Amino acid sequence: MVLQKRLGYEFNGYQVPNVPRGSRSTRGKRCVRKRVVENDMCAFELLASVAGELLLGKESSPAQSDTITGGSNPMFSKDKVKEEQDDGLNSYEDELRGQKSCDHVSRASKIGFQGQEHGCIFTECLHPSSIVIISDPSEKVTFAEESVFSRNKSEFARSPRPDQGKFSVKVHSPLSPGSYRGKVEDRIPTPPQFERQKNADGIVPSPCFSEDLMEVDIKPPPLVSSSSSIETSPKSGSHMEYAAGIADYEKSSSCNQTCNMTSKPFRPQRIVDRRIRKLLASKFWKVGPTLLKDGDFSDKDEDVKPLFYSRKMCYKRQRTQKFSFKRKKLFQRGSISSCDLPYNGEGLSCSPEIHIKGEASSSETGVHGGNGTSSSPGAQKFAFDSDDYHVKLSIKSFKVPELFIEIPETATIGSLKRTVMEAVTAILGGGLRIGVHLQGKKVRDDSKTLLQAGISHSDELESLRFTLEPNSLQSPKPLISNNEDAPLLPICDSPEPLKRLPPIAVTGGDSSPKRHRPPLAAGDPSRVNSPRRGPTTPPAERQSPPDSKALVPVPAADAEALAVFPLHGKSRRSETGQRRVRRPFSVSEVEALVHAVEKLGTGRWRDVKICAFDSAKHRTYVDLKDKWKTLVHTARISPQRRRGEPVPQELLDRVLSAHAYWSQQQAKAEPCPRLT
DNA sequence: ATTAGGG
DNA sequence: CCCTAAT
Fold this sequence. Notes:
Blueprint lengths: L5 E6 L2 E4 L6 H33 L8 H7 L2 H25 L4 H15 L12 E6 L5 E5 H5 L19 E2 L5 H11 L4 H6 L19 E2 L15 H30 L10 H10 L3 H11 L8 H28 L11 H4 L4 E6 L24 E2 L6 E10 L2 E6 L4 H17 L2 E7 L2 E2 L7 H4 L4 H5 L1 E7 L26 H4 L38 H4 L3 H4 L9 H6 L6 H5 L11 H14 L4 H8 L8 H16 L12 H21 L7
Helix pairs in contact: 1-8, 1-13, 2-8, 4-8, 9-10, 10-13, 11-13, 21-22, 21-24, 22-23, 23-24
The structure holds a DNA duplex.
C-alpha cells in the first residue's frame, strides 16, 4: 500500500489583494479562500483552452509560462522519489498484478473532492508524490499531480485496463517521443524500476484510472529539446503540465463521486511518528509541525466546531506571526538564499506581480485604458496631474510569489487552509522589498526621480513593473565561505537571476473581463474562523472593494525565463526555516569566549557577545550561551569522548573554573540578592 | 530583546 | 543548533 507521507503543494502564486498593512494577514486569508472560490470557474476554462491548444498541437502561449515553474522542481521530485520509491514501486507492482485498490487515489480524491467544493482541481496521486498546483496565465489555478507526468510521463499514455478500460489518456508524441519523454524524466527522475514497467510502447498500464472514459491526444510541442537540463523548455513543460492537469482533472472529477465514497476506508491509518514530524518540521516551513499538531486533533471542519476552531485559529495566528518574524530574521541574517524563497533573490520575482491601477483624478489622463487586453502587462493607467505632475499609481493587487507547502496527507482541509494562510503570511511578513523595473531594466537608483527615470510618460508606464523581492538579501554571497552553505544554495544564486526570472509586469487597474474574478462566494462561512477578527472586524477590512477582487493576473513577463527557473532547486529546505549551517567554534573562538566569560561571567551573554563576538554576526548570544554549555560539558567528560576539533585542555580547565566561579557567585547572589 | 534550559 | 518559557 502506498502511503504517502505528505503531499507537496506548489503554489505558483496567489493573488492577494492589496490591503492595508494592518490587515494583510486577514486579507491573505480571505484571498486564499477567494482564490479557491475563483478557481471554480477556472477549471473548465483552463481545460478548454489548454485542451484546445494541445489538441491543435499549437504552442502554448508564452503567457502561460507562469505556470511552468510549479512543476519543475527537480529537487523536490527527486527527494520524493527517493523517499517513497519503494513504496511506490511495491504499490505499483501490486496494482499491476492485482488491480490493487485505489487507496491512494481515494485518499487523494478525498482531498480533491473537498478541494473541488471550492473549485480546486486536485489530482489524485498515482504514486506518492507531490501535487503541483499550477496556475495558468489567467491566474486560474490548476492542480496537477506531478507524479502523473513526472513518473509516468511518457507512460502518461495509458492503455485502457482490460477490466475497466473505460479510461484512457493517450499522449502521442509523433515529433519526438524520445526527447519528450526524456524531457520530463529529466525533470523528475524515474526510478529504473518504473522504467521497466513500461511495455514496448513505453506505456504503463494505469492502475487507477478507471472511472471514466477519456481520450486525450496530446501532442508534444515540436520544439521540445532533448537537453537534459531542468531548464526545460517552458513550452514543453507547459504542455506537459497542462496535459497532466487535464488528465487529472478529468480523473478527479470523474472519480470524485466514486472514490470519494471509498476514501474513508483508506484513510491513512499511519501515524506519523515524531521523527517524521521533526523531519517535516525541519524540512519545511514551520507550518509543518504546527499543521501536524493541528491535524491530529482538529479533524473537523471549522464549520462544525466554530468555537474550537476559532480558538485554534487564534493560536495559529500567533504562531504564524511568530513564524513570520523568524522568517524575517532568517532573511536578515542571510542564511536563506534568495532561492529559498518563493521568489528568488534579486528581483527575480519569479512571479510576484503587482497591478497598478491608474487613479487619475481625471479619467482622461490615463494612457492606456485598463480594459486592455488581458495579457497586456502594460495596461496600467496613470494619471498625469496637469497641476503638479503627479504620477498616480495605485497598486491594486499583487501576486504572492510561489509557495511551496508540504503537508501530511492526514491533515485536514482546515489545516491545509491554515497552512496556506501561514505560508502566505510568512511571505508577506518576511520582509519584502519592491523592485522597480522600467523597460525591462531594473531601476536601482532610488534617488532618481520618476521624471528622471522616465516614469512620467505614458509609454514608459507601460513598461513599468514592480517586483517583490526578498528584503535584506542584498548579499547572498557571504554564505559562500562555508562549504556547507554551498549545497544549500539554490541554483538560482547563479548569476543572471533577472534574466531567468524577469519581473512580473504590473498591469493596469482594469482587469479585462476575462480575468475578472467572480465575487467571493456569498455565504462563505469560513470567515468566521478568521482569527482575531470576528464580528468586530471593521467592514472595510472584511470586504474588499469590488475592485480589489478584480485580481488581475498578469502573464509572466517571460515564459521562458520562468520555465527555466529551477524553482525548487532547494527551496524546500529554505522554506522550512532552514536550519542554520553548523559552524563549529574554532579554538580561537573558544578562547575568546572563555576569556569573555571569565571576565563577565555566565548569564551575561549579550555582553559576552558584544565583548568578544561583536563582529561575528553569525554568533548570537544564544549561540555563545550554548557553546559555553557544551564547553562545560566537554570539559567534564573524558577526552576520549570529546568530538570535533579538540579544545586545548587548558581552555577547558579555565572553562570549568570560570563556570564554577560564576556559579558560585550566582548562588551567592540568588538566595539573598539584597546582601550582595 | 535577553536569559535559561530542555531537546 | 533549535525552541520555549520567562523575564
